[in-house]
Amino acid sequence: MAAELSAERAVKLAELQVETAKKKLEATRQSQQLIIQSSPIGSLTKQLQLLELQLQQTQLTAPTTGKILRVDATAGGSVGTTPVIEFADISKMVCNAEVSEIDIQRLKVGQKATMTSPALSSPLTGTLQRIQPIIGVPQFRPSNPLAPVDFRVISVTIELDDQSAKIASQFIQLQVDVTIDVVSNESAPP
Length: 190
Fold this sequence. Notes:
The structure is a single chain. The chain has helices at 2-38, 40-58, 162-168, and strands at 67-71, 85-88, 94-100, 112-116, 124-136, 153-160, 177-180. It is rod-shaped, with a radius of gyration of 40 Å. It is α+β, with helices and mostly antiparallel strands and 190 residues long. It has three helices and seven strands; from the N terminus they run ααββββββαβ. The chain has a five-stranded antiparallel sheet with strand order 3-6-5-4-7. It has a two-stranded antiparallel sheet with strand order 1-2.
């Protein structure tokens, strides 16, 4: 009987130890959950995700291929509503020119044009693509300060040929002298 009593005590003691271990395990799990919930790891993960989104918003992606002509911002500076960069597709280049109203009747789309400038080693060539319908005062200043300014002009657009476009892409907004090959009045119908 003493052995039975001893065995019963041992079983009860073991059951008590198992019950105590279960309670300790449950308390440890609850502590772990509290630590995870109160830990800054969750908050830091959210902050990291927010910073990654902000970084994506700071990246500029061009809608097409082209060339950055000018950057008007500095690293770390704030950006408002003004342009940050000037970007252009330079695969096709045009020359905007002003022609005296006296010569309007001599202009026709498709005529060849030559552009020269002291900045160019050779002339640029192109084709007259558009004649604007509005006559107005000159918008481009002449390089000669003594040139007359009291006349009216019509704006024309000349598309440069491929070779000239490559050269012109190095000199965006270069002022040039334009010569348009016109049909002579003698061959025009009366």
